[in-house]
Amino acid sequence: MRGNPEAHELVAPGTLSGVLSMLANEPGKWTPIAGGTELMVAHAAGRLSARCLVSLWGIRDMRFIRAEPDSIAVGAGSTFSDLRNHQAISAEFPLLAKAASWIGSVANQSRATLGGNLANGSPAADSSPALLAYDAQLELISARGTRRVPYAEFHTGYKHNVMAADELLYAVHLPRRFGQHRQYLRKVGTRRAMAISKVALAGCALVEQGTVREIRIGAASIAAYPTRLYRTEDSISGQVLAPETLRAARVSALSEVQPIDDIRSTAEYRRIVIANLLEEFLRSLTGAGGQQ
Question: Do the two domains 61-174 and 182-284 of this chain adopt the same fold?
Answer without folding.
Answer: no
